[in-house]
Design a protein that fits this description.
Blueprint: H1 12-19, E1 47-58, E2 63-73, E3 90-99, E4 104-113, E5 119-121, E6 127-130, E7 133-138, E8 141-147, E9 151-158, E10 164-165, E11 171-173, E12 181-198, E13 201-218, E14 224-234, E15 239-247, E16 252-260, E17 266-269, E18 274-283, E19 290-299, E20 302-308, E21 314-317, E22 323-334, E23 337-346
Antiparallel strand pairs: 1-2, 1-13, 2-3, 3-4, 5-6, 6-7, 7-8, 8-9, 9-12, 10-12, 11-12, 12-13, 14-15, 14-23, 15-16, 16-17, 18-19, 19-20, 20-22, 21-22, 22-23
Length: 355
């Protein structure tokens, strides 16, 4: 979808004629990001997301995978209309909790048009909410709240490192053509604390998380089916992000990523420096989709073996963004030596994605 799969609106067919007249801006080389403004929403672009994934533990050493995502979409419908109910901007929100102790993934989703103070995404900084789900940035701390019938999140995420601008100064190519790109930055190694409430019982948790903020009007090329993505944070403070865009015919359309070492040295990865090798396939008992949930990933001179916290971390988001994808917490090791944790995202395996 991640960075990412929110992708195809269920009512896309009804909007085709309306969006044909809308001109969305492109990501242009040489554009400089400016903060705190670019922490906020960019409503002129077609698609945007704020994506948090984290590996957390409670006081008993029980691990949890958590995902909180807010997606913004400009559908291009009734933009010239005067009605306050016109769907000029849409917000979608996903939340997921992986509980390996019970081999269960809990997830929920929301969708609404912006307006009336109930559903908003600020253009000044990160301040996005869909009813009682929210993500707010204050200084170098994010605060997230999510309430669902079966679980709830109340987290703080504290920045411990500078922003990681992806690609070239925050412009991340997604294909060989210049317009196939996104504005993209990350905040890895977020120190995380708070509470996970499960069936009314609160659990104090702590751990590490990763935030991506990305916006674009042309994220997935027509030739691409979807992407594989990793965001891994190492115990020594280093981080790696890598992705590949998969072609519909089974080949690789594009790839990229970045590395920041424990000493703070950073570099971007060229397409030929990134490779994903599936090690194990898991088939969803609900959808019948096959996902390569265990991977060997080469990112520059780093080679990682990824194993999931649990196999079943499939998200069925057809009710909101029209997509099915796998988004899961993983362990990262090299040569049998544990290095850290992170998330693996697999999109376009059920059907090609459309943003």
């Amino acid at each position: 979808m991640r960075r990412r799969s929110f992708l195809a609106l269920p009512f896309a067919a009804a909007m085709t004629a309306a969006t044909a007249e809308v001109r969305y801006p492109e990501v242009r080389a040489g554009t400089s990001l400016s903060f705190p403004r670019d922490h906020g929403a960019h409503p002129e672009f077609r698609t945007e997301w704020w994506y948090i994934t984290g590996w957390l533990e409670d006081g008993h050493g029980h691990a949890f995978g958590v995902q909180i995502t807010f997606f913004r979409s400009r559908p291009g419908v009734q933009e010239s209309g005067a009605s306050r109910f016109a769907p000029r901007q849409l917000l979608f929100a996903h939340a997921a909790l992986a509980e390996p102790a019970h081999a269960r993934l809990r997830h929920d989703q929301r969708a609404a048009r912006t307006g009336f103070g109930l559903v908003e995404a600020s253009e000044r900084t990160t301040d996005v909410h869909v009813d009682d789900w929210s993500l707010v940035l204050e200084g170098d701390r994010y605060r997230a709240r999510v309430v669902t019938p079966g679980f709830a999140f109340d987290f703080t995420f504290d920045a411990t490192q500078p922003l990681l601008l992806q690609g070239t100064a925050g412009i991340s190519r997604k294909g060989p053509h210049p317009g196939e790109a996104s504005f993209y930055y990350s905040r890895p190694q977020l120190q995380t604390g708070g509470f996970v409430t499960i069936d009314g019982v609160p659990h104090a948790v702590h751990g590490t998380a990763w935030l991506d903020h990305e916006w674009s009007s042309r994220y997935v090329a027509p030739e691409a089916a979807g992407w594989d993505w990793i965001g891994i944070y190492f115990a020594d403070g280093g981080v790696v992000m890598a992705f590949r865009m998969r072609r519909r015919d089974g080949g690789i359309y594009w790839a990229g990523g970045s590395i920041r070492t424990a000493r703070g040295r950073q570099r971007s990865l060229a397409p030929d420096e990134v490779a994903f090798e599936p090690l194990r396939i898991w088939r969803s008992p609900r959808t019948g989709v096959d996902y390569p949930v265990a991977m060997r990933v080469r990112a520059g001179d780093i080679e990682l073996t990824l194993e999931p916290l649990m196999d079943d971390q499939e998200l069925d988001a057809r009710a909101t963004v029209g997509a099915i994808y796998w988004e899961g917490a993983v362990r990262a090791d090299a040569g049998g030596r544990a290095l850290g944790h992170g998330y693996l995202e697999l999109t376009g395996y059920a059907q090609p994605l459309k943003l």
